[in-house]
Design brief:
Bound molecules: adenosine-5'-triphosphate
Number of strands: 22
Strand order of the largest sheet: 8-9-10-5-11-12
CATH class of the largest domain: Alpha Beta
CATH superfamily of the largest domain: P-loop containing nucleotide triphosphate hydrolases
Shape: elongated
Oligomer: single chain
CATH architecture of the largest domain: 3-Layer(aba) Sandwich
Helix content: 10-25%
Strand content: 25-35%
Radius of gyration: 25 Å
Number of helices: 9
């Protein structure tokens, strides 16, 4: 039945199920400033989906449009096949968890979670029973009679989650919910959030500017910049196969090297770097002979050796080594003003050969490590 409705409206259907959210050609303008420029994307049912991008890229605006707190200037938003962009927020089966947990300070934890249910017309007894179940889900049952100020920041955020999940929304929106927590707690909460999403089966749409958070939790990630969608994919796609300069640079650390393409044949591109160093890399669509583009190579996909380990080894002079705890980062200068960063694991099994500043080392690439970028 639902599927038919989706098809009738021309919605995209994934694995024979209607998407939780379909955003079609959505534009948001504030006066003459365009915060979102024609965004189209689909979020699958039961997915942990993340909107990732730097401050001001429009991710909160998009989230607020889904929630109904912000009008859509142009375009359409569908929830399980039904058009919702004209519905007021309280008519959408969607809930939001904010960065500041916004708990009622005078109420107990149990009452905080039950409050929204009672407002929706549930009996006090039913609301309290459901609130109790939700507190069990976030492992806070033992604190149900405490007040919010008697809980840690992480515990308060879990109460806010329990409260948002209590009415069984079809979609839960999470606007940087971990950013008020300290680093250790934030890391622990990543696993909890992911578990919670799996257990409840509710579609989560998570907003963050923290790429590590996005990579660790998400089924898929939409990378945004300046009101535009830059890339949509799973964590490995966007980390290992960035589609452009912005994504390569924003996600993790990378070497962005200027190259010129000398030839393209049988799926391989022959390129050269500034100092004339030649390399053969996977070709990408839209980058042909004569193109001057950037190539992205992750530092951890490079390793150093004394002698050349193949025709594509590049010789460089070590400028500095930096101890980064888990890794050792080595910066090297190549001819032609090219600089390359290499990361070696600081472990018994890792690359323990440390070259001293001034020494010549050969830089070798793991297969498939270099990625040409179309723009
Ligand atoms: N009410 C408003 N009026 C005018 N401009 C706005 C309004 N709300 C947001 N903007 C602008 O729209 C752009 C996107 O804002 P948005 O809050 O969506 O960014 P964001 O990616 O969530 O950033 P952050 O991570 O800092 O929250 C910004 O340039 C912002 O200044």
């Amino acid at each position: 039945m639902r599927q038919k409705a989706g098809r009738r409206k021309g919605m995209q259907v994934t694995d024979d199920r209607i998407n939780a959210i379909d955003i079609r050609n959505a534009v948001k303008r504030y006066g003459d400033f365009t915060a979102l420029k024609t965004i189209s994307l689909s979020i699958r049912d039961n997915e942990f989906f993340t909107l990732l991008g730097p401050s001001g890229c429009g991710k909160t605006t998009l989230l607020r449009m889904i929630a109904g707190f912000e009008d859509v200037t142009e375009g359409e938003i569908f929830l399980f096949g039904d058009e919702i962009e004209k519905l007021p927020p309280n008519r959408r089966p969607i809930n939001t968890v904010f960065q500041n947990y916004a708990l009622f300070p005078m109420m107990t934890i149990l009452d905080n979670v039950a409050f929204g249910l009672e407002m929706k017309g549930e009996s006090k007894a039913a609301a309290r029973k459901r609130a109790g179940e939700m507190l069990e889900l976030v492992q806070l049952s033992q604190f149900s009679s405490r007040k919010p100020s008697q809980l840690s920041g992480g515990q308060q955020q879990r109460v806010a989650l329990a409260r948002a999940l209590a009415p069984s929304p079809k979609v839960l929106l999470l606007d940087e919910p971990l950013s008020a927590l300290d680093l250790k707690l934030r890391q622990a909460m990543r696993f909890e959030l992911k578990e919670l999403q799996r257990e409840t089966g509710i579609t989560f749409i998570f907003v963050t500017h923290d790429q590590e958070e996005a990579l660790t939790m998400s089924d898929r990630i939409a990378v945004m910049s300046a009101g535009e969608l830059q890339q949509l994919g799973d964590a490995r796609d966007i980390y290992e196969r960035p589609s452009n300069m912005f994504v390569a640079d924003f996600i993790g650390e990378t070497n962005l090297l200027e190259v010129e393409v000398d030839a393209v044949e049988a799926g391989r591109a022959q390129v050269h770097l500034g100092g004339g160093h030649q390399l053969s890399v996977d070709a990408v669509e839209g980058v042909g002979k004569g193109a001057k583009v950037h190539m992205s190579v992750r530092p951890e996909r490079l390793y150093l050796s004394e002698g050349a380990e193949g025709p594509e080894s590049l010789a460089g002079t070590v400028r500095a080594n930096m101890f980064v705890g888990t890794d050792i980062q080595t910066l090297l200068d190549l001819d032609g003003g090219v600089q390359i960063s290499v990361r070696s694991s600081n472990s018994e099994r890792g690359n323990k050969r440390v070259f001293e500043p001034g020494q010549i080392a050969h830089i070798n690439m793991e297969q498939g490590a270099a990625r040409l970028l179309a723009d």
